[in-house]
Specification:
It is built from 14 helices and no strands. With 314 residues, it is mainly α.
Length: 314
């Protein structure tokens, strides 16, 4: 059955989010070798937010009006771009990226649980699809995880276990930010909202990068500049802009599958660009993720699921 017409553009945006953010691990891995993480994020958000906001203002897009409207933008920015991003970057110093990907793949469950608590209708098959997708994530990254639990865990220090626990908090915070976009009414267009949220995050990241002593460690090379440019255009203008748009249009369960789609794209790119392993475990995981996505999407398409706030708006 084809998706309801009101979801057609949002489904394309969902696919765009997966494609854009799927390039994130590869692009950020190359960038942070030359521009430290907090500094890279500060430059990314400030450049992307300022240029996009200026363009949208030139096109006649309105800014938020009133303390309440600005407060909602600040809360979404704090959840999606400041707190969760900083914690995620900190955790990756002590937790392998494969394990981090598995833990943060619990995000769809947090998001759909919030929707259910708020009274949204969540089809049973949507839960099943999310579970199959999570199992697929485990299979996809199993080659990276198989040697992790050595010596009954004694090889890992306290910061490993702290980081592992914090990653669940990261998934919860990211899900909270996504649900805010899905549930709240905003006075501005989704793309102006994403621009404002980026500017707020960039301003917050600048003092953080100084506190971490990152600026003396920046290598001003064309590779670093190219990495920042990719983060601005593809990850932020493309990925985050489409994310804000589709979260305001789709039911939570349907929107949440980006949490599986983006890592799958990342693994495929690692195989194509870097020649990384793509053996039987990866193939089985990819198939399970695609099956879970198909079940979740079909369940939301057939059920009388409540669309997100503003799903019928242009």
């Amino acid at each position: 059955m084809p998706p309801p017409p009101r979801f057609a553009k949002a489904d394309l945006a969902l696919a765009g989010v997966c494609l854009c953010w799927g390039t994130g691990p590869l692009a950020m891995a190359e960038t942070v070798e030359r521009v430290p993480p907090a500094t890279a994020q500060a430059l990314r958000f400030l450049i992307a937010g300022a240029l996009l906001a200026a363009f949208l203002r030139w096109r006649g897009h309105a800014l938020p009006s009133g303390a309440g409207a600005w407060g909602r933008q600040f809360l979404v920015s704090a959840a999606n771009l400041i707190v969760a991003q900083f914690l995620f970057i900190w955790c990756l110093q002590y937790v392998p990226s494969a394990l981090a990907a598995i833990i943060t793949a619990t995000l769809p469950f947090f998001l759909v649980a919030m929707a259910a608590i708020a009274g949204r209708t969540v089809p049973p098959w949507a839960w099943a699809g999310l579970g199959i997708g999570l199992a697929g994530m485990l299979l996809l990254f199993w080659p990276d995880l198989s040697g992790l639990w050595t010596d009954n865990g004694t090889a890992h220090g306290d910061r490993f276990w702290i980081g592992t626990g914090l990653l669940f908090l990261v998934a919860l915070i990211w899900a909270s930010g996504a649900f805010m976009i899905n549930a709240w009414t905003f006075q501005v267009s989704p793309f102006m909202g994403s621009a404002i949220q980026c500017i707020i995050a960039g301003i917050a990241m600048v003092p953080l990068s100084f506190l971490l002593g990152e600026w003396p460690r920046i290598e001003w090379t064309w590779q670093g500049a190219a990495g920042i440019a990719w983060m601005v255009t593809v990850l932020t203008w493309g990925g985050y802009g489409l994310f804000v748009y589709m979260m305001g249009k789709l039911p939570p369960a349907r929107a949440s599958i980006y949490g599986y789609g983006a890592p799958l794209i990342a693994v495929l790119l690692g195989w194509l660009v870097r020649g990384e392993d793509f053996g039987p475990w990866r193939i089985a995981g990819s198939a399970a993720i695609l099956l879970g996505v198909a079940i979740t999407t079909t369940a939301n398409g057939r059920a009388k699921d409540q669309p997100a706030r503003g799903a019928d708006s242009p």
